[in-house]
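Sequence only, no structure available. Ideas?
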Amino acid sequence: MSDDEEYPEFKDLEAWPGYRVGRDGSVWSSKKNDEWRKMTLSTNMSGHIIVGLTKDKKIFRLNVGVLVITAFRGVAYHKNDYVCLHSNGLLEDCTIDNLMWGSLFDAQEIREEHSLDRKTLKKSAIKLTADDILDIRLRYGRERQSYFYIGRQYGITAKQVVKILKENRFIRLPEET
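Reply:
I predicted one. C-alpha cells follow.
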C-alpha cells in the first residue's frame, strides 16, 4: 500500500474532534477557528515524534506515528500485541508509507536490521569539529531539538550529546568566550 494514490492527503482523527493528520506525518488543528493550521511537533526522549492534543481542557502528548497509522489504516487487529513500526527504522519518519502495525518481535527485527548502521557509525570514530560542536549547542539551545535527534544527525549517542552540552571538557568556542 505504498502507492500515493491509495490514501487521501488528510484524514480526520475520529477520537480527537478538530484535529487531522496528513499522509506526510503532519498534524493539523482547527480548534481555534475554522481554518486548519499545522501544529508544531516535538521529539520525546526515546526519539518518537509527539504532538500535544487538547481534550476537555487537558493536553495529551501523543505519538504521531500511532495517530497517522490509526487514521489511515485503522486500529491494529491485535491491538494489545501490536505496535506502530517504522519500516525504515527512522522514528522521525511518520509518513504513512513508512508505518505498519507489527509485533514486538517485528520491532526487534527492524531494530536489528537498522542497528548495523549505528554500530558502523560508532566504530568509525567520528571526530566532531568546532563547527559541529557549535551547531549541536545551537540545535539544542535555539531549536530545542532532542538529544536523541541531534545525536542521530552526527552519528553519536544521546549521552554523548549531553556531554557536549553540559561538560566543559570540550573546546571552548570563540563565540562563547
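The helical segments are 64-73, 104-123, 130-141, 147-154, 158-166.
Hope that gets you unstuck.
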